[in-house]
């Protein structure tokens, strides 16, 4: 075996999964919107300008087919609109509708509450440090995935 301390790495992976399951809430029972739909809706809402499905696929780390399915579901609920790109008739950008903004206002606290609790419990500085480390870790892993695809 390459790594004699693999059991310690497995324990860390378990902690990471546990953290993820506590920090990222699933949709409440009876909700009519999934966690992935919420993620896409939040990302489209806080983008400075309308986003493309390709941009969302990269940002969310999923395939474009997943984005297409989510877009169709959110459009059917009238939470987002597709705006055609004038220079390319096959392309479109996404815009959150007024109904979508109401839905975000209705549910954001439930989904973000674990992070508010974490921030309060850790304090501002340690909370920011945690997310700086997470950002750095995500960059390292993204670079490795890019290498593997080449």
Automatic annotation (TrEMBL):
Protein name per UniProt: MarR family transcriptional regulator
Origin: domain of life: Bacteria
SUPFAM superfamilies: Winged helix' DNA-binding domain
Taxonomic source organism: Roseburia porci
Pfam family, one: MarR_2
PROSITE patterns assigned: HTH_MARR_2
Lineage of source species: Bacteria, Bacillati, Bacillota, Clostridia, Lachnospirales
An example Gene Ontology biological process: response to stress
GO MF annotation: an example: DNA-binding transcription factor activity
């Amino acid at each position: 075996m390459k790594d004699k301390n693999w059991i310690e790495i497995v324990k860390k992976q378990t902690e990471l999964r546990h953290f993820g399951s506590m920090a990222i809430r699933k949709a409440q029972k009876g909700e009519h919107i999934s966690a992935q739909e919420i993620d896409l809706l939040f990302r489209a809402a806080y983008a400075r300008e309308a986003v493309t499905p390709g941009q969302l696929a990269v940002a969310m780390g999923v395939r474009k087919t997943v984005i297409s399915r989510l877009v169709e579901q959110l459009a059917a609920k009238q939470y987002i609109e597709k705006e055609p790109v004038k220079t390319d008739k096959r392309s479109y950008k996404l815009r959150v509708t007024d109904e979508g903004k109401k839905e975000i206002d209705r549910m954001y606290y439930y989904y973000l509450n674990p992070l508010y609790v974490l921030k309060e419990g850790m304090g501002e500085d340690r909370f920011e440090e945690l997310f700086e480390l997470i950002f750095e870790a995500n960059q390292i892993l993204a670079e490795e995935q890019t290498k593997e695809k080449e």
